[in-house]
Specification:
Elements lengths: L2 H14 L6 H11 L7 H9 L1 H11 L1 H16 L7 H22 L1 H5 L5 H19 L13 H11 L1 H4 L5 H11 L4 H26 L16 H26 L5 H20 L5
Length: 284
């Protein structure tokens, strides 16, 4: 992979990781257009590893929140009166809500990286989940705040989050934000919950991929060359910087806007992919 492709893919990852438009779907599409075998072990490892940059951006951005929640959770473990702190319950919610996606990721890893990485699947998921997002975005009674988060809410959001790795195109953030809206949370709270729920899952997935798929970065695809560590590191760093600003923009945007623009974009993108596939411009 040349550095121009690495920078482009890092930008795509950074912009889309936390927007409800599917980062994996976008990466697969761009990788395919650039001529890569999206089911090859090298590009699959590259796609997973560069997400670490976006994860680090989220950790840096929400560092104070993360420290506060962890501190409250540990205090609650040893002091009964500290369990009244909403952050203690939120800590448990994040832990419990992260379990479903971890189970799905481990049990269906090979299937996810194989048949489900098809552009047909991505287009269908983009289109169909847009309906769910539209339904969630139409709710009027969005009044619940972070202090109202309970274990049941976290589990529901966690179950929605587990759909994302199964069907690239749904979007992890799209699934979790929709779940938050369905549970009656304000758009800004639902978006923050999406970040909080995503950080443990993405950190675990990033570490797992970095360990298990590291050797694949230097493995050549059939008839091609290996991705290489230099472009992988460059793409990861680019995704970190871009993701940080993407997070800041999204939180500001949702404070006064609906998700209609994202939904329309998803539908248009799905239609474009389907047309390209039908015309033979790209293969699934």
């Amino acid at each position: 992979m040349n550095l121009l492709h690495a920078i482009l893919l890092g930008i795509v990852e950074g912009i889309t990781e936390f927007l409800p438009v599917s980062s994996t779907g976008h990466l697969r599409i761009v990788e395919k257009l650039l001529g890569y075998d999206i089911q090859g072990v090298g590009i699959t490892a590259f796609t997973a590893i560069i997400q670490v940059g976006a994860i680090l951006a989220a950790i840096i951005y929400f560092w104070k929140d993360i420290v506060r929640i962890i501190a409250a959770w540990f205090r609650g473990l040893t002091h009964k009166e500290s369990r009244e702190d909403p952050d203690y319950t939120l800590g448990w919610g994040i832990i419990i809500g992260s379990i479903p996606v971890a189970v799905v990721g481990l049990l269906f890893k090979d299937f996810i990286e194989g048949a489900l990485s098809s552009l047909w699947v991505i287009a269908a998921a983009l289109l169909l989940w847009s309906i769910a997002m539209a339904a969630a975005d139409r709710r009027k009674d969005l009044t619940r705040e972070m202090k109202d988060v309970g274990i049941k809410d976290a589990l529901v959001i966690g179950l929605f989050q587990a759909l994302a790795p199964l069907f690239p195109g749904i979007s992890r953030s799209g699934a979790t934000i929709s779940a938050g809206l369905f549970r009656g949370y304000t758009r800004e709270t639902a978006t923050r919950l999406s970040f909080y729920m995503g950080i443990p899952a993405l950190v675990a997935a990033g570490i797992y991929e970095a360990i298990t798929a590291a050797s694949d970065i230097t493995t050549a695809s059939p008839g091609g060359t290996a991705i290489g560590w230099t472009p992988t590191i460059v793409a990861t760093l680019v995704s970190l910087v871009v993701a940080y600003f993407s997070i800041a923009w999204l939180l500001k945007f949702v404070s006064s806007n609906k998700f209609t623009g994202f939904i329309v974009y998803r539908v248009i993108l799905a239609a474009v992919i389907i047309v390209l596939l039908m015309l033979g411009v790209v293969t699934a």
